[in-house]
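Service request form, structural biology core

Requester: graduate student, group of Dr. S.
Request type: structure prediction, single chain
Budget code: on file
Notes: please return the result as structure tokens.

Sequence provided:
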Amino acid sequence: MERVLVVDDDGRVLTLVAAQLRKAGYEVQTAADAEAAWKLYREHRFPVILTDLRLPHMSGIQLLTRIKESAPEVAPDVLIMTGHSDLPSAVAALRAGAFDYLAKPLARAALLATVARAAEHQRLLRQVQVFSGQVSDLTRQTAAYRAEFSRIQGLDHLVLASDHMREIAAVANVLHRDPSVPVMIQGETGTGKELVAKLVHCGDGCGTPRPFIDVNCAAIPATLFETELFGYEAGTFTGARPGGAVGKIELATGGTLFLDEIADMPMEFQPKLLRALEERAIRRVGGSAKIALDVRIICASNRDLGAMVTGRTFRGDLYYRLNIGVLDLKPLRQRREEIMPLATQFLDRFAREKGKRFHGFAPGLSEPLLAYPWPGNVRELRNAIERAVLLNDAELLQREHLSFLEGVGPRLPARPPTAALGSGPLVLPAAGFDLLAHEDAIVREAMRLHDHNQSEAARFLHLTRSKLRSRLERRPSA
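Core staff response, request fulfilled:
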């Protein structure tokens, strides 16, 4: 039942009204004057307030006005009581925004009926607020969805220049037809897992826009996972929205929930997600009603979840539930036939966006581009082309515009290594070298390859995040 605040300077009326409301199942607090009522309201934000018209120091109408002005969007329903049941006071109360007007002495039936109507009105207002927030979020998601596919001009304009990517697109289209099948996309960072998720979401065409809600599991604190995904009811915890909140899973109704970096999902939340998938229903935090799910689940990971299951760092039951529609993305170095088509698409796109003259590549530039290993995959290629276009302006992209290609490709003379990492013995220069400077360069290059994401760079270097941060803060010795 709703919480009700009763305000009256007559102790007998206060006790009687509070007792009748508590007996009817309401949670009631009382105040003997307007200042005490105002303090209680600021602390507890009561949805229903029952106040006498005549109070010491401040009238019930003045209290009503103060409360309404402090919370115009989520204002409570205020009921005015008075022993002076004349028309002018009733009109003044209603004009000030009172929900209703009760004349003393209060009849029990009238009191309970009026409070019940106010409580139901508040419940409907909260429901409208939740639905309005859901519509607003879906509108933003739809706009972002349309903008993304407008940018790449639909699936017909995607670069599918390798047999591998054509097969990925074909399987994605098959998976699109059955939203009940969870999809797991695996691949190194930067290989395009989110874009493949959108291929599954859309199938072979954009069609009618439906929500695509992406959740980066690595970015959500463990304590907030349940409220972020499942939502919560009003009053569940201190600081909660007055009307509660809709979770990401509900926002994805009729569309797709994309759980990126699912390997970072806290172990304690994994059985709750598994139960939601099995029952195809959730309960909001603090709620008891089941909410049916109509959502496609797509997950992505750049880590070996099977190995994590073996190492007991990811639940096996959840892994086997998700690992049905599997798409394994090869790194760019294993699909080199895509490098030049992708580079051409990026060059055209960024030249157009930034108003530059670039319209092609200098002769011979394709050889080092194809020879480079692209450890950051498609994301690194895209960022390299964008940076080159941003910092330069010419008709053809030149080797000097891509400084990281120095020493790459058969057209350049080989340079003796200063330090080589690989499966063979480590090769060091005879004259020696600065260890700290090289370590600093390696750490910063790892950060660049992973778009300055410290968690990903730390995993790449087999370091903890705190150790990586200490190396980033340190400067190499002179």
